[in-house]
Design a protein that fits this description.
2% strand, single chain, transmembrane transporter activity, 6 helices, transmembrane, mainly alpha, 178 residues, Arp2/3 complex 21 kDa subunit ARPC3, ECF_trnsprt_substrate-spec
C-alpha cells in the first residue's frame, strides 16, 4: 500500500503531466501498430503502459491508461466500438504495471512476473470475458485460441519490457517523473 500512497502523495508537476501526455500519445500510437484479428491481436502498447507504471506508480499509471483508452476510442475508434470493460482492463493494467515496476529494481524476473500478471488477469481473463460479452461467442471457444497467443505474448513482452526498462534504468531517462 505504501507504493500506492507514495505515487500519489505529491502534487503532480507540469513536467509529470508533460511526460504522462507523451507516454499516453505513445501508447495510443503503439496500440494502432498491432497486427492480427480482433480477437488475436499482437501489439506493442504495453511498452508505453509499462513506462507509465515504471515512472509514475500504480495510481497515476492507472488514471493515465484510462485516459489513453477513452481518448483512443474518441479520436481513433476501433471496429468494435467503445466498451467500458476494456477501460476497466486498462485501469487494472496500469495498477499492475505501477505496483510491479515503480521504485523497483529492473530484473528479468520482475519483468516476467509483471507480464505474467497482465497476461493472466487482464488479457486472458478480463479481455476474453469482454469479447465474449460483446460477441456472444462461447467463452471456451475464445479462450483456447487466445491461450496460444498469450503464451507467445508472455515471451516477447517479457523480453521487450526488460530490454526497454533496463536501458532506461541505465540512461539519463531513469529520473523522468521521479
Amino acid at each position: 500500500m505504501s507504493i500506492m500512497n507514495s505515487s500519489r502523495s505529491k502534487v503532480i508537476s507540469v513536467q509529470e503531466v508533460t511526460w504522462m501526455a507523451l507516454l499516453i500519445a505513445m501508447q495510443m500510437v503503439l496500440s494502432k501498430l498491432s497486427f492480427g484479428s480482433n480477437t488475436l491481436q499482437v501489439g506493442f502498447s504495453f511498452i508505453a503502459i509499462g513506462l507509465l507504471g515504471y515512472y509514475f506508480g500504480p495510481f497515476k499509471a492507472a488514471i493515465a491508461n484510462v485516459i489513453a483508452d477513452v481518448i483512443s476510442n474518441v479520436v481513433m475508434p476501433s471496429a468494435g466500438g467503445f466498451f467500458i470493460g476494456f477501460t476497466f482492463s486498462a485501469l487494472i493494467a496500469g495498477v499492475i504495471y505501477g505496483f510491479m515496476l515503480y521504485n523497483h529494481k529492473v530484473t528479468i524476473w520482475r519483468s516476467f512476473l509483471t507480464v505474467l500478471l497482465i497476461t493472466v488477469v487482464v488479457n486472458t481473463g478480463l479481455n476474453t470475458l469482454w469479447i465474449h460479452m460483446m460477441t456472444n461467442v462461447p467463452y471456451p471457444a475464445l479462450l483456447i485460441p487466445r491461450l496460444a497467443k498469450e503464451a507467445f505474448s508472455l515471451v516477447y513482452q517479457t523480453g521487450l519490457l526488460y530490454i526497454v526498462l533496463h536501458w532506461i534504468d541505465n540512461s539519463k531517462f531513469s529520473k523522468i517523473g521521479r
